[in-house]
Amino acid sequence: MKTDVVIDLADVMDQMLNAVCVVDGAGNFVFVSAAFERIFGYAPSEVVGTPMLDLVFAEDRPVTLKTVDALQAGEDCSHFENRWVRKDGRVVHVLWTARWSEKHQARIAVAHDITERKQMEDKLTHMAKHDQLTNLPNRVLIQDRLLTVLTEARHVQTQLSLLFIDIDGFKPVNDSHGHSVGDTLLQKIAQRLSDCVRASDTVGRLGGDEFLVLLNGIAERSDVERIAENIRVELGRPFEVNNLQLQLAPSIGIAHYPEHGENDEQLIQSADHAMYRAKHAGGNRVAVFTSVPAAAN
Q1: What does residue 174 show for φ and ψ, rounded to 5 degrees?
Q2: Could you give all domains of the chain from N- to C-terminal order, each with its CATH number?
Q3: Is the peptide bond before 238 cis (omega within 30 degrees of 0)?
Q4: CA distances from 279 to 2, 150, 237 (A)
Q5: Helical residues (DSSP H) of the chain, grouped into ranges
Q6: Would you write out the chain's pLDDT as a tens digit for each of its 297 residues?
Q7: Residue 96 class from Cβ within 10 Å (0-12 exposed, 13-18 middle, 19+ buried)?
Q8: Could you write out the DSSP letters of every residue in 98-119?
Q9: Catalytic site residues?
Q10: H or E segment to which residue 256 belongs
Q11: Which of 47, 116, 209, 283: disulfide with 167, CB 3.0–4.6 Å?
Q12: Buried/exposed 40-49: b ≥16 CB within 10 Å, e otherwise
């Protein structure tokens, strides 16, 4: 038995979770399916006849136009990603499957909302490069940033200094009051360190009670030492955790580029050596790296 079924293509597209869009050669919407409103917040009646580019995130407009030109020239750009701004102001990440129809002189595209995937990728990337307890950059990100500013310092002769900070007295506090108090204390230390430097500087945690501070573009060495001394004073003020008054003190080592190291490993090692010199001298002080005389080797 044969059954004649008449299918309205527009009705079929309206059932899709992804949005189908048709944009003419001038860049205006001529059709969008019902799912467009779910993804972008605009009803089809609000966008048909308006420029597609108006809804694209401003920073992504140049690459979007470049991709559109390539599509219309016959190049294979069938899959590309960009960001759009929803009606409510939120930014959505979109993966487009698109092609240019020469017959209709229009772009036919399907929008896949990948915002959730992008957010998860960003979260995983952040976790891979940040200390989970303090949310400071971890060793990986610190070295990445150090390599970046070293490259800049070599090319445009900017100044660069590194502080290696170890917290004297942290282990006894952690052992006496437990890891919960110790973790909260590390978070408070991280906040005080961040408050002592500029937003353009980097404060990172190497692990345990060891921290690095990367100071970029401070010309006067005396200013670097002044910042280090301020950090020493601030970390020497009592910390209050769970109604406990906890007293700590830092040992801080300073290394400058290029006199104390020409690469990231040398600079970190020099600052580390200076920190140990401060610690062995009694702690709660700042020391600048001093090269070991050749005769002492």
Answers
A1: -65, -40
A2: 9-118 (3.30.450.20), 130-296 (3.30.70.270)
A3: no
A4: 91, 27, 18
A5: 9-14, 35-40, 44-47, 61-72, 115-129, 139-156, 170-177, 179-195, 221-236, 264-280
A6: 444 444 455 555 555 679 999 999 999 999 999 999 999 999 999 999 999 999 999 999 999 999 999 998 888 777 899 999 999 999 999 999 999 999 999 999 999 999 999 999 999 999 999 999 999 999 999 999 999 999 988 888 888 999 999 999 999 999 999 999 999 999 999 999 999 999 999 999 999 999 999 999 998 999 999 999 999 999 999 999 999 999 999 999 999 999 999 999 999 999 999 999 999 999 999 999 997 543 333
A7: buried
A8: EEEETTTTEEEEEEEE-HHHHH
A9: 209
A10: strand 249-257
A11: 209
A12: bbbebeebee
The structure tokens 């899959």 sit at: 79
| CA pseudo-torsion sign 216, 221, 227, 228 | positive
How big is the chain, counted in residues? 297
Residue 253: exposed, middle, or buried by beta-carbon count in 10 A (0-12, 13-18, 19+)?
A: buried
- Quote helix, strand, coil % in the chain, to nearest 5: 45, 30, 30
